[in-house]
Amino acid sequence: MSDKAEWQPLRDELRRWSEAGRKVKFWFRDDDAIEPTPALDRLLALSNRFEVPMTLAIIPGPTAEPLAERLARESRITATVHGWTHQNHAPDDTKKQELGLHRPQEVVLDELHRGFDKLKALYPQQFIPLLVPPWNRIDDALLPHLAPFGYRAVSVFGLAKQAPIGLINTHIDIMRWHGVRGGLPHAEIIGRLVEELQNRFDGNDEPIGVMTHHLVHDAVAWSFIETLFEETAGHAAIEWRPVGNFVH
């Protein structure tokens, strides 16, 4: 267990869950995998050390056999579709988006179809029919067209809303994306995590998703993941689940 005082609010909230005899479901999603890297090895080592299942959102266009071969021996890893090339097609003055209607809808859908088929072929044992839109953004008009390709759910950021396809969202982002890049201060992430736990205690049974990006982690980010697992893996109030448990 970490001896850092800043983690105490999380410990206190989990004690409340334990005393109530309740459990909360967590899942872990890491984005932008393309090929084997030392950073990916570091992430996988944490998964194995703490026995925490992880979902990798893999960019289908540029990925190939080397990543599939590296992951084939990893029993806790599942593969999901992360857009097509993770390329922004939105105007410069708007938020980045690959899966918008800035191009013909049939072009975008064709890429999503190809991405599904490519990763399903590369990962016959580990593939989950989940779409993770780059930048967590997808135009609502595309959602009704995903099921015929085989998709069963989409994962974006924030509490799930009504949608024509299942939503398995993330809620905790450990990175600071503006200004000085790197992991957010631990106390800030812990505060958000406690808020999500309090929301679930009050009746929302949505699994809490933690989102990471292994290729851009600094020491602060890596330290957060390791300490989070130290604090939660095996805790009586927490179940770390593979995302496949939630995709139907």
From TrEMBL:
This is Uncharacterized protein. It comes from the Bacteria. SUPFAM superfamilies: Glycoside hydrolase/deacetylase. InterPro entries: CE4_u4-like, Glyco_hydro/deAcase_b/a-brl. One of its GO terms (biological process) is carbohydrate metabolic process. It comes from Rhizobium freirei PRF 81.
